[in-house]
Amino acid sequence: MGYSIRSFEDGDAEALAELGRAAIGAIGPDAYSEEQVDAWLSNFAGPEVYQAQADAGTQIFIATNDDDEPVAYAMLEQTGHLDHLYCHPDHTREGLASSLLETAALYAKYHGITHLFTEASEIAKPAFESAGYTAMKKRTFEIDGVTITNWAMVRTIETATGAKVPA
After folding, report:
1. Count H helices, E strands: the chain?
2. C-alpha distances in angstroms, 90 versus 19, 46, 72, 167?
3. How far apart are CA 74 and CA 133, in angstroms?
4. CA distance 87 to 91
5. List of the chain residues with pLDDT < 50
6. Is 91 helix (H, G, I), strand (E, B) or coil?
7. Per DSSP, what are the bridge partners of residue 147?
8. What are phi and psi of 88, to 5 degrees?
């Protein structure tokens, strides 16, 4: 199966919300308890959030299959915050996370973003480390009274000569 990466298009929002929920439900239990996965899912974005993010200038990079169906995605905000990185459970171990993280880094390089930062789940942490991110600290937070952990991570980006600097 071949994959390609493209930007968010109108009509992608529902598929991305479903993809993220499928990833959390299937892969989340590898590192989190059932209670933690349920809390994560209860707080997960609905389709309206994707369209609103895209309208606000967030770059949403989507890996698609041969039928142009989204199978993985990453959301890069104008601040350099990489918010989501999710891969459908049927398409893991295909290098899609690495490709999306590199796409985000290249975008940052040519748009004057000098640092990418994220809050990576226990599951995503190795993918971010492989992409050049450094774990700064383990974070503990609550969703609906359920304690969850993730990792504050950062990657320095050397911007291209003449790169557009964000306002």
Report:
1. 5, 7
2. 10, 21, 10, 39
3. 15
4. 7
5. none
6. helix
7. 142
8. -60, 140
